[in-house]
Amino acid sequence: MTDFFRDIAPVRFEGADSTSELAYRHYDPDEMIMGKRLEDHLRFGVAWWHSFAWPGGDPFGGQTLERPWFGDTMDLARMKADVAFELFAILGQPFFCFHDLDIRPEGASFAESTRNFEAIVDYIGEKMAAGGPDLLWGTANLFTHKRFMSGAATNPDPDVFAYSAATVKSCMDATHKLGGQNYVLWGGREGYETLLNTDLKRERDHAGRFLQMVVEYKHKIGFDGAILVEPKPQEPSKHQYDYDVATVYGFLKEFGLEKEVQMNIEQGHAILAGHSFEHELGMAASLGILGSIDMNRNDYQSGWDTDQFPNNVPEVALAYYEVLKAGGFTTGGTNFDAKIRRQSLDPVDLVAAHVGAMDICARGFKAAAKMLEDGALEDARAARYAGWDSDAAQSMLSGGLEACFDRVIADGIAPEPRSGQQERLENIVNRYV
């Protein structure tokens, strides 16, 4: 045990009228919603990197957070794991997520880094076996070290490609060993800065082959979890190959992976791509590749990915509405890819951030479930497209331009615009949130 979270008791559900700062007002894990426990719907996960590895820097300033486990030694890595599981016990969430670099110190060589990683994975496994949460997903950090400045799978240096593939193998092995339910690939440097030194076709081909190798290895080791790709536009590379859900789906189709790979979609990344979170979720669901989500938000006045904890119930409700319409999570869940502000220095700030976020998500989810159960939005949607249910409309789709021409002439078709009723539908949403 450490004393980092000393005097902070486990957080409990106390109801909407509670005045306690550290209590769940809306998140009751055992509440039944649409025939399932709320905990099993939301499947909350805590992100190791933001909660325990982030030093409090931003693009214009350095470290503000002082943590006793910061440093590159195995003892400090074990202390970090101890603190992590103490937070998990306080929050009571069912999952966590990590990159390799979050949990182990960098060694003098790949072999030493791997030994460090395997030792800490074993240490975490012991803590999980003693009653800690499960692993929602693991992933590899292929973006922080300078070796990845020109990408990992898309790097012009084949040695970096090999190093990246070896790193992913070790992280997949660790995820499999710990019973992880998914494995995520985030292409943080899979892009380019200028076309003057870039071979687009070669880089895309290498990225495609890299992902094929990941899928092949998944089947070789018998990993039952999902392989997830997390789209990310612009930041940090100027042009990202994994810009948004639609772009990634085209990439998957090109390399024959659309039945093998799903999406891990982040709210902040959706905004950077010029979309809404619900758009990206709805797009992934329509393509059959919605896997998991990273829940956070961006500052509306900043131009980068600020990774703040969610606090907007209407936004969260619309996101979970798309998740529920798609059938809900299977192996996926709600990972808080979010960090406290660099001025939030106290241990209790980290606890309070997660408590508030879990409550916001619970409120939004329950609103989404009620909207879907009541059916007002779906009834309006069905009515808007009802004309396509006719035999004439369906036969038109299987015909050609001439058949459409003949139908317009024969039936004297002269269509008039019909209201999309957007404001009325927005008012419906506002009844719930």
* Helix-strand makeup class: alpha/beta
- Work out the strand percent: 5-15%
As a whole number of angstroms, the C-alpha radius of gyration is 24 Å
Mean pLDDT rating: 96
Count of separate DSSP helical elements: 16
Query: Strand order across the biggest sheet?
Result: 3-4-5-6-8-10-11-12
Distance from first to last alpha carbon: 41 Å
Helix content: 40-55%
What is the N-to-C succession of helices and strands? Answer: EEHEHHEHHEHEEHEEHEHHEHEHHHHH
Q: How many DSSP E strands?
A: 12
| Largest beta-sheet characterization | 8 strands, parallel, barrel
- The shape is globular
Spans where pLDDT lies below 50 across 5 or more residues: none
Brief digest:
By secondary structure, the chain is α/β, with parallel strands linked by helices. 47% of the residues lie in helices and 11% in strands. It contains 16 helices and 12 strands.
